[in-house]
């Protein structure tokens, strides 16, 4: 049976289209927030792009909000699934807003984009989530060393699930108070079935760190 709508009903705007701007931004923020446990398979950036295509108003609001794009920066997804032009557009939209950056399994082809981004935007990164379940090449080990040794007053959240070498590199910088504003530290050392003593770091010694703002710290290993 067909539905007969009145002219008034046909012209009525759906309730979600008349939500106040501040409410919409809160909804968008939930879509854009990186979840380090899920972003590998369901990048927040995809949800954000989909939302931006719903209607002209939503797109306009999103394009005017760098802090939304800057919280959904899955660098591995951007390198592997987006064109160079669109990657550059995403970075442009993020601007100079505080960034949440998610990285996983940095392959040889991913490295140049990932490390160049970290170098250029390190001063804006508030949250860094690294999930690297593969063996790093010596070149990438050196690049991670250089990244971790760079001081940052901006970094608040550090989430590292990686090999012993990379884990040690970041922990050493934490201990040296290179990230004095750190609030949340989540570290998982992954064995990766490696036996080479030159790769694994056993019983490292750390200096005493001064982290007055640290609220939560988690350490564990996987085997």
From TrEMBL:
<protein>
    <recommendedName>
        <fullName>F-box domain-containing protein</fullName>
    </recommendedName>
</protein>
<dbReference type="Pfam" id="PF12937">
    <property type="entry name" value="F-box-like"/>
</dbReference>
<dbReference type="InterPro" id="IPR001810">
    <property type="entry name" value="F-box_dom"/>
</dbReference>
<feature type="domain" description="F-box">
    <location>
        <begin position="16"/>
        <end position="71"/>
    </location>
</feature>
């Amino acid at each position: 049976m067909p539905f007969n709508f009145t002219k008034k009903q046909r012209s009525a705007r759906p309730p979600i289209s008349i939500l106040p701007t501040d409410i919409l931004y809160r909804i968008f923020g939930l879509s854009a927030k990186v979840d380090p446990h899920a972003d590998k398979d369901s990048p927040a950036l995809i949800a954000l792009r989909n939302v931006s295509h719903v209607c002209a108003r939503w797109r306009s609001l999103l394009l005017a909000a760098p802090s939304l794009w800057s919280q959904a920066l899955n660098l591995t997804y951007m390198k592997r699934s987006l064109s160079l032009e669109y990657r550059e557009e995403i970075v442009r939209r993020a601007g100079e807003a505080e960034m949440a950056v998610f990285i996983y399994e940095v392959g040889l082809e991913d490295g140049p984009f990932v490390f160049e981004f970290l170098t250029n935007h390190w001063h804006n990164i508030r949250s860094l989530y690294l999930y690297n379940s593969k063996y790093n090449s010596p070149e990438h080990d050196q690049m991670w060393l250089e990244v971790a040794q760079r001081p940052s007053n901006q970094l608040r959240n550090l989430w590292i699930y990686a090999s012993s070498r990379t884990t040690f590199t970041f922990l050493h910088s934490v201990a040296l108070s290179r990230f004095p504003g750190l609030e949340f530290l989540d570290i998982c050392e992954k064995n990766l079935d490696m036996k080479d003593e030159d790769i694994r770091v056993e019983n490292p010694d750390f200096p005493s760190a001064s982290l007055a703002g640290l609220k939560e710290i988690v350490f564990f290993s996987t085997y």
